[in-house]
Write a structure and sequence with these properties.
elongated; Serine Threonine Protein Phosphatase 5, Tetratricopeptide repeat; 0% strand; 79% helix; 21 helices
Amino acid sequence: MKYILLFFLTLSLQSYAQNIALGDSLVAIGKYNEAINTYKLASENSKNYKIAKVFEAKGNKNEALKYYQNYIKLDSTSIPINFDFGLLLLDVSKYDKAQIVFDKLVQNQKTNSIFLYYLGLSFEKLNEPGKAFKNYKLASEIDSTYHKSNYKLAYFYSQIKQEEEGIKICNRFIKQNSNDIDMLKLRAQLYYILNEYSSAIIDYEMLLKLNQDDEFIYKDIAKAYFKLSNYKKAIEIYDYLLALNPEDSNYYFERALCFGNLNDFKKAQNDLDKTIELKQLTFESEYFYKAVYYQKNVQLDYALKFYNKAFNENRENIEAYYQICVITDYKEVNKKKVLPVFKLFLKKFPQAHQSKTDYITKRISQLKQELHMQ
């Protein structure tokens, strides 16, 4: 009798093992629902993991989580399955639970750079940048070739004003692979932050050659050329950006500044007018630069008009009101009307640069003498 029982037990075990194997074969040909039903017939705990992976493949992440949890209730020691579970927790934004999973994995394997990276990522998602940085740094020290942790570390260096350290990391990877797009983008931005505009342009131009046409690349190149006083080149790029986004008021404004620096005041004014037309909030900067360009073109009535507009937009705009003082002094025949304008400047802007307050104070004294002599 015992041989008969053993025979049926062997058949039963073979049947369960066959269910796992059959489920695997169904997954291989994309029959996910049939695979899930087949896995459920098995008795092994591994079926829970198998079912979880199929639900992941189907995009049903909540069901996948449930079956991961079913597996871990029976066996919490499997490192590969806990790792997959942690990744899914990150994917569904359960960052606090993911952090616990990856912390346990790191405690189990303290020198595993991948586990450290994902623990860092969990902390980053939980808005704990200090802990994230610590784990990214440890991961990088353990494996200086692991791209993900080193990229994150370089990025975090930029956040704590240590851009040079970030550039060192980028350099190491770009030296190995000159087409490393992620590191090129990051290095270009770090150069830009450091005002190393020529180096930033080189990296951005390389990215364009690699068919990276993100809008921010063109924006940064245009600004970099502007900073280098290459206004014509900047205008070319703003022309391209405006062809892509003809309703972007910022591009018109920035191109206006380029035209202004080339003393092409008519085009500058046209772009500023377009900026004002497109913008919906305040126009302080646009009014201010319109005034500047009218002033440079010796159209003082218009300059005064737009300095007043800029000042009305922002009553703390020291430069706008200072220019109002200067132009009013130049144009106004009745100097009695000028004195209160000057006095208001000193009262309202005691923090203004000394050169301005000295000039205004001197002119008040001169005007009083002139008026007294009259």
